[in-house]
Design brief:
Length: about 130
């Protein structure tokens, strides 16, 4: 079974739904669980990105604490989400990435979904959680 699971989430109700499932599977498999939130890098000023980071960190801390994810296994980054997710997965030798998806179809799916990019670039198993 899986020994190391990575769960990319947003600090939101939907993110908590995904984390709850990942934490449940990690417990069932006695696996190590890592959680990451990536704030998409954009053309906004760095001060605004810093503000976003300051807003996300406490929410992530609360969510991760609720599901007993150790502080050393929690990450908040700024950049391209799929790149940070896939890089962390390789670095931590992750067996499974559990990521939420809104199941966009057609043109919207082609224009860029983090889950879609992770599925295409990850070197481990990926489970999509429909939210």
């Amino acid at each position: 079974m899986y020994q190391t699971i990575l769960c990319p989430i947003e600090a939101s109700k939907e993110g908590e739904e995904v984390l709850a499932k990942a934490a449940g599977l990690a417990k069932l498999c006695n696996a190590k669980l890592f959680v990451i939130n990536v704030i998409p890098q954009n053309m906004l000023p760095k001060d605004y990105q810093k503000e976003l980071m300051e807003d996300v960190i406490p929410k992530m801390e609360e969510l991760c604490a609720k599901y007993s994810v150790p502080k050393k296994n929690r990450f908040v980054k700024v950049g391209k989400p799929y790149e940070h997710i896939c890089t962390l997965a390789k670095k931590k030798d992750v067996d499974l990435i559990m990521i939420g998806t809104h199941s966009k179809r057609g043109l919207k799916a082609l224009l860029g979904s983090t889950a879609n990019s992770v599925v295409n670039y990850a070197t481990c198993d990926v489970t999509l959680i429909k939210i």
